[in-house]
Amino acid sequence: MKPIASAAIMAVISVSALFSSCKKDDNAPPPVSSASLSPGKAGASFKTNTDFGKSNSFNVRNTATTFATSQTSSGLRDIKLQIGEDDGTRVIYFDLAVRSTASTASGNISINLSSISGLPLGHVRLEKNAYISVFSEWGQSTSGTITITRLTASEIEGTFSTTAGKWTINNGSFAGKF
Predict the structure, then answer these.
(1) In total, how many domains does the chain have?
(2) Which range is the signal sequence, renumbered to this chain (predicted)?
């Protein structure tokens, strides 16, 4: 009977360890939704691997320094999001190009940030001390992905993971309302 009891105890300990190791990161900023944004505004939420100004965590939306624009011309839709803190210490920019007919009605749109040709295209740039110093520190995306999960005539939402300069971001979110 002792071997069976020992095996049962070990099984319980193993399952407990498995579930505790899969625990959600309580320090991760909440995802951004376009529903909470005013027209012309944007938001982003993410954590970086190293200090990005005040901390590794960024969660900004609907401030005076957030902007969302969408313009269509010659079959191309150009979407720009700028999300910055009011004091100018940290800013993230998204520059996305998709076909003018693109939408997420039939599924997500995936953008490879390593690609420099074809559609869709994307670019992410992070800046520290962007508005307050000529000595800003910045990094632009060289790899990673953007997944657009919602794209309508008036809104965009998505997730992203990228390396931009010295900063690595996994499971970030962004949104904009045009």
Answers:
(1) 1
(2) 1-20
Using the structure block, give the residue that is written with the tokens 């095996």: 7
Walk along the chain (178 residues) in steps of 10 and give the mean pLDDT of each run: 47 40 55 95 97 91 95 97 91 96 95 92 90 77 97 98 96 97
Q: What is the pLDDT of residues 106-142, one digit of tens each?
A: 899 999 999 988 899 999 999 988 666 666 789 999 9
Residues 6+ apart with CB under 8 A from 139: 125, 126, 163, 164, 165, 166, 167
**Contact 70/178 with Cβ under 8 angstroms?**
yes
Q: What's the pTM value of the predicted model, to 2 decimals?
A: 0.82
| Residue 85 is assigned to a structural domain of this protein | yes
Q: What is the pLDDT of residue 162?
A: 97
Domain membership flag for residue 8: no
Q: What is the DSSP string of 48-117?
A: EEEEETTEEEEEEES-TTEEEEEEEETTEEEEEEEEE-TTSSEEEEEEEEEETT--STTS-EEEETT--S
In a domain, 5, yes or no: no
In a domain, residue 114? The reply is yes
Q: What local confidence, expressed as pLDDT, does residue 88 receive? A: 80
Residue 98, domain extent: 27-177
CA distances (Å), 18 to each of 9, 13, 21, 118, in order? Answer: 14, 9, 5, 42
